[in-house]
Amino acid sequence: MSSRKLRLTILLCLLTTxxxxxxxxxxxxxxxxxxxxxxxxxxxxxxxxxxxxxxxQWGFEQAIADINxxxxxxxxxxxxxxxxVIADSEGVSEYGQAVVERLILQDRVQGIVGFYxxxxxxxxxxxxxxxxxxxxxxxxxxxxxxxAGYVEFEGKPPRRSQGVDYVFRISPPSSIVGKTVTDWxxxxxxxxxxxxxxNTDYGHPAAAAxxxxxxxxxxxxxxxxxxxxxxxxxxxLSRIQARPEPPDAIRLLVSGETAYNxxxxxVELGLAPTADTICVTNHLAFQSTQYWNNVPDGNFCAxxxxxxxxxxxxxxxxxxxxxxxxxxxxxxxxxxxxxxxxVWLMADAMQRAGSYADADAVVAAxxxxxxxxxxxxxxxEYGSHNPDLPADAPAYMWHQWPVPVVTVMQYFAAGxxxxxxxxxxxxxxxxxxxxYFEPDN
Length: 441
Known about the structure:
Elements lengths: L2 H27 L6 E7 L7 H20 L3 E3 L2 E3 L1 E7 L4 H13 L5 E4 L3 H13 L4 E3 L29 E3 L4 H14 L4 E7 L4 H14 L3 E7 L7 H8 L7 E5 L4 H11 L9 E4 L6 H7 L7 E5 L8 H14 L5 H20 L5 H9 L3 E3 L2 E3 L27 E5 L11 E4 L16
Parallel strand pairs: 1-4, 1-5, 5-6, 6-7, 8-9, 8-10, 10-11, 11-12
Antiparallel strand pairs: 2-3, 12-15, 13-14, 15-16
Helix pairs in contact: 1-2, 2-11, 3-4, 5-6, 11-12
C-alpha cells in the first residue's frame, strides 16, 4: 500500500473513532465555548520519515480523543475541548520553521508538541522562545535540543540565564542512545566498527557520541557518510567490501525508510550480519511488518529501541498497542507513544496551571510534571524549579525527561514479530537469556 493510501485509510479510521468519542463526550461533558488548540509537527511527506510522521499523527489523534472523552481540560470548573492542528515539516528545517510560524501566527495555538527530525527541532527552538510558546519535543535526539542556547545552537547550557525556557524534550538524547548501543558492542568484545551515518543534524552528533564511547573503550572506528533519500548504496558499501578484514560490527545511524534500503543492500552484499560482523540497524526495525517487507533478508540484525519494551508495558501502553495493531497490523512504535504522551503532558500542565493562555504558568507546571503515561512516569529533574545542575551532570539534562528506556533488540528468526524479538541489552531488560544471537549462515 502506498504511503498516501495508508494515510487516507488511517485518517478514515481516526475520523470514525473521533466522531463516536466526540458524540459521547458532548452528551456528558458540557464543553465550554473556548477550545484549547495545540499545534503538532511531524514529517508526513518525503524527504522526511513518512513512517515516523504517520505514527506520530496517530499518537496525536489518539491522545486528543482520549482527553476529550475525559471531558477535556478542566479550568476553573469549566471543561475545555482540546483541538490539534497537525503540520507537515517534510523533515526539512526551513519547512519546519514555516509551519511552526503558521501554527503560532495563523492557527493561534497555545502550545506545540511533536517533531521527529533533529534538524527541524534545532531550527525551531528559537521560535518557541521568541513567541513564548510552550513546546515539547517528542522524538528528536540531538543533545542540544535540551542543552543549547536559543539562537546560537552551540551548546551553551543551561538556558535558565535567558529567562523562561519554553523548550522541553521527552525523547532520549543521542548520547543516551549511543551509550546503550556502544556499551553492548563493547560487552561483546568488538575491536573494529564501521559507522554509516546520514549527513544531518541527527547523524553527525549521534556518530560523534557513539564514536567517542567506542574509542574510549579502545575500539577502532571508521565513519562513512550518506545522504538521506539515496537508493543505491553499493558504491559506499563496496568500500567496506574492499577492506582486508571485515569489521566486527556495522552500525547504521540513518533515519527513515532510507535505513531499510541500506540494511537490505548490506545484507545482499554479504557484509552483515555474518559470523564475523554484527549488523546494528536503526529503530524502525521494531516495526516488524514493514521491516520484513523491506528487509526480507534481515534476520539477526540488531536495533536500538527507544521506549519501554512490551514486557514492561503499562496498562495504558497495552491498550494503545491493541489499538495500534488494529489500525496498522503491527506493534506499537515509540514515536507514536512519544506523540501521545506529549499531548497528555501539555494538557496536564495546562490543567494544573489553571490556564491555557498563560505560557509562563504552563512552563512552570510542566517543570513540576509528575504523571504516568504510556512510556512511564514523566518528570523533569532540572529547570527553574531546580536550576543547579551538578558539575558532572550532562548539559542535556535541562528540561529533559531523565529516565527514558533505551534497549538493544535482535531478531533471531526470519519474519519474527518484534514482540518476540530478543531484548539483548541492558542485562536488566534481557528477555531470552542471551546478549547476542550469532547468525547461522
